[in-house]
Amino acid sequence: MWLKNRYLIISLISLFLFIITAELVRLGETFSFDLILRELTQSATFMLGFMKVMTEIGSGEAILLLTSLLLIFLWLRNNKLLFWFLFSLSVGGVLLNFGLKYLYQRERPGAEMDIEVFGNSLDLISYSFPSGHTMRSVILLMFIIYLTNYLSKKWLADLILIVSIFLLICIPFSRVVLDVHYISDIVAAVLVSVSWFYGCLFLFKNKLQ
């Protein structure tokens, strides 16, 4: 039972934890913890240059470019199932993030920001909860890690896994260091991304396996 429905179970547990986190944020219960972590990260000025690079890697433009290249690659390799899996993950993830941001409308810890696409402002407020950088990055990197199951070269799979885990840690953390998100925005984004990824994987699993 567990093995058969493990993806669905992971998705539902992550969703449940996200709902709890979101409710705590809505009630203001995470604010003290958020402020403590914010103050601690503000002292890490020696990391600013590196964190700016990490946050650029997780930008909407960078993720869109990499996702598009992966989609083209999968289409040319005639792997339509993985193509539609990634397409569903990416498009659905973006819509989910926008929907949650406007549902909760949490202000950012720093200055107010507008949503930008390739440097052009859409004149829409970019709310803080949950982190878009984190959601985009986690969803894509989890897909890339999943792709390592199809690689015959173990050293290459291990290298991709190590790099992906490194980015999974650094990109979300960069958003806190750069004072554009609270830690609770990051935690919530990770939880809902994991839920979305495994929910989609559950729907695609019979055809992918």
Mean of pLDDT:
85
Order of helical and strand elements: HHHHHEEHHH
Q: What structural category arises from helix and sheet content?
A: mainly alpha
Biggest sheet strand line-up? 1-2
| Assembly state (oligomeric) | single chain
The rounded Rg comes to 17 Å
Strand segment tally: 2
Tell me the overall shape. globular
Q: What is the makeup of the main sheet? A: 2 strands, antiparallel
Low-confidence stretches: 118-123
Helix run count: 8
Strand content: under 5%
Gap between N and C termini: 17 Å
Tally of separate domains = 1
Question: If you had to describe this structure to a student in words, what would you say it looks like?
Answer:
- By secondary structure, the protein is mainly α.
- It has one domain (8-208).
- The chain has eight helices and two strands, in the order αααααββααα.
- A two-stranded antiparallel sheet has the order 1-2.
- Helix 5 (80-104) runs antiparallel to helix 6.
- It is globular, with a radius of gyration of 17 Å.
